[in-house]
Structures are given as structure tokens and as C-alpha cells.
């Protein structure tokens, strides 16, 4: 079989659905490569800043790496704005949806709500924006983590002079994360908090 014969889902057979499932599993194996390509596509988006969205993404991930953060944090930092391509009004939720099955809950929550936290840095300059939008999340277990994420990695990463590590440096980490078993409880670890900064780990990293 190289194609199913049904034209309505309700008419499909067990064999056809087994065939399609095998195809889908094969397709999911290449998610990391598609995401890396999407990051390259981000290079063309959002002009006006001193660096492109790809530059911003790589710089955020580089800062996470140099802060000694773990792989969940680094990959989340790298992909936090991936939603800018198709979801300009909820880019944070879009990115979080991609990450959710594969990273710690702490990281996907921070990505999901980072747009509200980022408003602290520019909301007061623009009509109709609430600089304190993040306050709606006050009291959440990961509130402080998002403050650090935005302060150290997101809002800081628009510097054309900063020495970014290349996207290729992060590619194996993206592959490792998206090769994980989706929704693995040992990965999601609801409620677990890992530090964004670890001086000892940072000091041991070569670059
Ligand atoms: Fe963002
Ligand atoms: Fe960002």
C-alpha cells in the first residue's frame, strides 16, 4: 500500500490506519529538522530591530547556555519566538504548544506566558499595552523563573555585538529534546523547578 483508498475517514480499514500510523511515526522523527529550518526562516521576519529573529533566538539560547542552564531551558530559549512566523498575536502560546510534550512543564509555562512578562520592558511606551500584564500570573509557581527568563535571556538578546554561538551548536540539543518520548512524566516533572543560572555548570562549559 502506498496510499489509502478511503475518501472519508469513517470508511478507513484497520490496515489503512496502521499504515497511516507508521507514516506518522516516521514523520515525527524529523520534527527537530523542521524546527531548525523554521528558525532559519525566522531570519527574514520582523525587520526594524538591530538583529533578526533568528539572531535573537540564537542569542537567547547562547545566554542560557552561558548561564549554565540545562538542555530544557536552552532549547526553550532557542524556540521561544518560533511562533512569530504564523501566530503574531499569540506567538508565545504557539511556541509552548510545540515544546509542551518534550520539555519540563516549568519551561513550557514560561515560554507560554513570556509575552505577558516581556511587556514590562515596553508596555509603558505604547498606547493600549499593559506594562504590568505579568501581574495576572503573580503567585504562580514559575513566576520568578519567567522574570529571570525575560530579564536575562529574552529582553537582553537584541545586541548585534554579542558573540552568539551558531545555530549548528544547538542543533544536537534540539534533536535530543525532540527525540524524547512525548509527555514522558520523567521529563515533564510537573512542579519541578530547575535553576536558570548555575555558576558551576557555566564555568565548566567551554565556550
Ligand atoms: Fe516573544
Ligand atoms: Fe524573544
UniProtKB/TrEMBL annotation:
Q: What is the designated name of this protein? A: HD domain-containing protein
Task: Look up the domain of life of the source.
Answer: Bacteria
Q: Which InterPro entries match?
A: HD_domain, OP_Dioxygenase
Tell me where in this chain the HD domain is found. 53-119
PANTHER family recorded: HD DOMAIN-CONTAINING PROTEIN, PTHR40202
List the taxonomic lineage: Bacteria, Pseudomonadati, Pseudomonadota, Alphaproteobacteria, Rhodobacterales
Amino acid at each position: 500500500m502506498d496510499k489509502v483508498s478511503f475518501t472519508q475517514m469513517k470508511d478507513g480499514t484497520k490496515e489503512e490506519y496502521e499504515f497511516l500510523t507508521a507514516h506518522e511515526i516516521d514523520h515525527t522523527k524529523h520534527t527537530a529538522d523542521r524546527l531548525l529550518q523554521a528558525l532559519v526562516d525566522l531570519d527574514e521576519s520582523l525587520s526594524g530591530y538591530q538583529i533578526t529573529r533568528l539572531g535573537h533566538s540564537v542569542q537567547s539560547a547562547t545566554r542560557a547556555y552561558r548561564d549554565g542552564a540545562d538542555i530544557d531551558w536552552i532549547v526553550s530559549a532557542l524556540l521561544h519566538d518560533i511562533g512569530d512566523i504564523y501566530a503574531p498575536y499569540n506567538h508565545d502560546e504557539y511556541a509552548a504548544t510545540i515544546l509542551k510534550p518534550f520539555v519540563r512543564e516549568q519551561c513550557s509555562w514560561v515560554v507560554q506566558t513570556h509575552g505577558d512578562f516581556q511587556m514590562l520592558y515596553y508596555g509603558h511606551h505604547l498606547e493600549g499595552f499593559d506594562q504590568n500584564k505579568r501581574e495576572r500570573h503573580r503567585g504562580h509557581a514559575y513566576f520568578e523563573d519567567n522574570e529571570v527568563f525575560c530579564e536575562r535571556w529574552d529582553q537582553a538578546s537584541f545586541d548585534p555585538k554579542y558573540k552568539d554561538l551558531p545555530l549548528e551548536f544547538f542543533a544536537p540539543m534540539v534533536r535530543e529534546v525532540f527525540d524524547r518520548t512525548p509527555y514522558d512524566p520523567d521529563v515533564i516533572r510537573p512542579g519541578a523547578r530547575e535553576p536558570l543560572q548555575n555558576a558551576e555548570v557555566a564555568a565548566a562549559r567551554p565556550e
